[in-house]
Amino acid sequence: MPTQTLFRLFRQIKFILLNLTIGVLLIGCQSDTQQMLPSFKVSEISGKVLSQEDLRGKVSIINFWATSCTTCVKEMPQMIETYNKYKTDQLEFIAIAMSYDPPMYVVNFAKTRQLPFKVAMDSDGSVAKAFGKIQLTPTTLVIDKSGKIIKRYVGEPNWDEFHQMVEKSLAEKV
User: Please, which pLDDT band fits residue 25 given cuts at 50, 70 and 90?
Assistant: First the structure.
């Protein structure tokens, strides 16, 4: 085969592989999902153990975050505002720190920022794995009362859309 033909073939293969890689990455970052709430156990910084049973019949917001994540730190005042706006016995709100986050940093952050919702440590990474191998922070999940994950935000949410989704979910009957 002439060199030009080989070069052209190599470029086409490279183009196909690049497009396949991008496609796989985009599928992995889908924001809407119909995944059901997985089984999990995680310890709050207070020491209490939380599981999927604590979320049964409630609208749940689970925020995977890290103290080293600038977007996580930036969005936390909005998370607090959202929690305070919608807090009810029908809403569960949990901020789960990633496994690589030093526990003392998480405890200090929660105390100095007076986080009003539950803060937990995913010390071994099993909770992030159970929720679909979450690696990027912040990742925020909205779970309806029936336990269906109805929205997955990677990065800071559109707050108006986020609030509308929370309101709609709280208004739904199970």
Answer: very low
